[in-house]
Amino acid sequence: MEIGQPSPARVRPGGPAPLLLRTEREHRTGLGTVSVLRARGTVDADNAGHLSAALAAHLADAERAGEHPLLDLTESYLACAAALRALAGPAGALARAGRALHVVQPRPHVRETLAAAGLPGLRTHATLTTALSALESAATMPTEPGTAPTQPRPPQG
């Protein structure tokens, strides 16, 4: 999914940066394909629904393709509670399925906000490298009884 246009949020000179979303895919030996949704700009009340819908679609596309989904918030600013709610729905759906959404977010305010919110299903990482390492570890770790693997299911169809 390619979404490279600014969100419908009003853009003002000197105002918040428009939200831009882009999907990138990378093949990793021993892991398979990792699908990264990169968010850039400010997530606010005007565009949080756009992020939530794009993230849900990203997760569904990755599930169908047997890819490992990842959300990169490196260049994002979470401006309000609506930004957290935008992540809560899709991450909660993964948590209910026994899986996690790995999030890259080195900006301190994003890390602190996500930690304070305690959203189920989110696994935060300081860098893309640590997120990829966590995905690789989860894919090779044996599953304990009563838990579900964090790797994607095989493609259907």
Give a written overview of the molecule:
The chain is built from 4 helices and 6 strands, in the order βββαβαβαβα. It is of the alpha/beta class and 157 residues long. It has a 6-stranded mixed sheet with strand order 1-2-3-4-5-6, sandwiched between helices. The protein is globular. The chain starts with a strand and ends in a 17-residue tail after the last helix. Mean pLDDT is 83; it is low at 7-11 and 143-154.
The sequence of SSEs as H and E is EEEHEHEHEH
What amount of the residues lies in strands? 25-35%
Low-confidence stretches: 7-11, 143-154
Note the quaternary state here.
single chain
- Let me know the number of strands: 6
Structural class: alpha/beta
| Cα-to-Cα separation, first versus last residue | 20 Å
Which value, in Å, is the CA radius of gyration?
15 Å
Helix amount: 25-40%
User: Tell me about the biggest sheet?
Assistant: 6 strands, mixed
Shape verdict? globular
Query: Which strands sit side by side, in order, in the main sheet?
Result: 1-2-3-4-5-6
Q: What is the overall number of helices?
A: 4
Write down the overall mean pLDDT: 83
Question: What's the SSE blueprint?
Answer:
Layout: E1 2-3, E2 20-28, E3 32-43, H1 48-65, E4 68-78, H2 81-96, E5 101-104, H3 108-117, E6 122-125, H4 128-140
Parallel strand pairs: 3-4, 4-5, 5-6
Antiparallel strand pairs: 1-2, 2-3
